[in-house]
From TrEMBL:
Listed Basic and acidic residues bias regions: 1-16
Taxonomic superkingdom: Eukaryota
Stretch list, region Disordered: 1-23
The protein's name in its UniProt record: Uncharacterized protein
Length: 220
C-alpha cells in the first residue's frame, strides 16, 4: 500500500506494513521501515534512516546522521556522512567508513575496508581481510595485518606493529615498542627505536640497528 502524508511533508511515501516516512521526500519501503529526515530513504524490513539524505538499504540496515549510509543486511552508518556497506558492516563517527562483511570503522574518519577489517580511532585505517588498526591514525594494510598504537603502521600480510609510531613493512614483519621500525619479510624489532632491515633480520634492545638478511642483534 502507498500512502502520502499531509502537504507539510510533500511527496513523503511509505510502502509496507507499518512503514514510516517523515520529512520532505522521505521514503520508507519495507515492513516496519522507518525514515526521518528530508530525502531520507529506507528500503528493507525494519530498515532505519534518520537524518537529512540518510540512506539505508537492507533488512535491519540503519543510516543515522545527515547523509549517513547503511547498505546491506544489518549494515549501520552512524554519524554525518558515515558509511556501512556490506552485511553487518559498521561505520560510527563523522565520515567513518566500514566496507565489507562485518567491516568496522569507529571514530571520525576511521576506515575499515575488507571482510572483518577493523579501524578504531580517529583516522584509523584497516584495509584487508581481518586487518586491524587500533589507535588514532593507526594504519594496517594487508590481510590480517595489525597495528596497535597512535600512528602505528603495518603494511603486509600478517604484519604487526605494537606501540606508538611503530612501523612494520613486509609480510609477517613484527615491531614491538614505541618508534620501532621493521622492513623485510619476517623481520623482527623489539625495543624503543629498534630497527631491522632485511629478510628475517632481528633486533632486540633499545636503539639497536640490524641491516643484514638473517642477522640477529641483541643487548643484555
Amino acid at each position: 500500500e502507498l500512502k502520502k502524508t499531509n502537504e507539510s511533508e510533500e511527496n513523503t511515501k511509505q510502502i509496507g506494513d507499518e512503514a514510516v516516512g517523515v520529512g520532505d521526500e522521505a521514503v520508507g519501503v519495507g515492513d516496519e521501515a522507518v525514515d526521518v529526515g528530508d530525502e531520507a530513504v529506507g528500503v528493507g524490513v525494519e530498515a532505519v534512516g534518520v537524518g537529512d539524505e540518510a540512506v539505508d538499504v537492507g533488512d535491519e540496515a540503519g543510516g543515522v546522521g545527515d547523509e549517513a549510509v547503511g547498505v546491506g543486511d544489518e549494515a549501520v552508518g552512524v554519524g554525518e556522512e558515515a558509511v556501512g556497506v556490506g552485511d553487518e558492516a559498521v561505520g560510527v563517527g563523522d565520515e567513518a567508513v566500514g566496507v565489507g562483511e562485518e567491516a568496522v570503522g569507529v571514530g571520525d574518519e576511521a576506515v575499515g575496508v575488507g571482510d572483518e577489517a577493523v579501524g578504531v580511532g580517529d583516522e584509523a585505517v584497516g584495509v584487508g581481510e581481518e586487518a586491524v588498526s587500533l589507535g588514532e591514525e593507526a594504519v594496517s594494510v594487508g590481510d590480517e595485518a595489525v597495528s596497535v598504537g597512535e600512528e602505528a603502521v603495518s603494511v603486509g600480510d600478517e604484519a604487526v606493529s605494537v606501540g606508538d609510531e611503530a612501523v612494520s613493512v613486509g609480510d609477517e614483519a613484527v615491531s614491538v615498542e614505541d618508534e620501532a621500525v621493521r622492513e623485510g619479510e619476517e623481520a623482527v624489532s623489539v625495543g624503543d627505536e629498534a630497527v631491522s632491515l632485511g629478510e628475517e633480520a632481528v633486533s632486540v634492545g633499545d636503539e639497536l640497528f640490524t641491516a643484514e638478511t638473517q642477522r640477529v642483534t641483541f643487548t643484555k
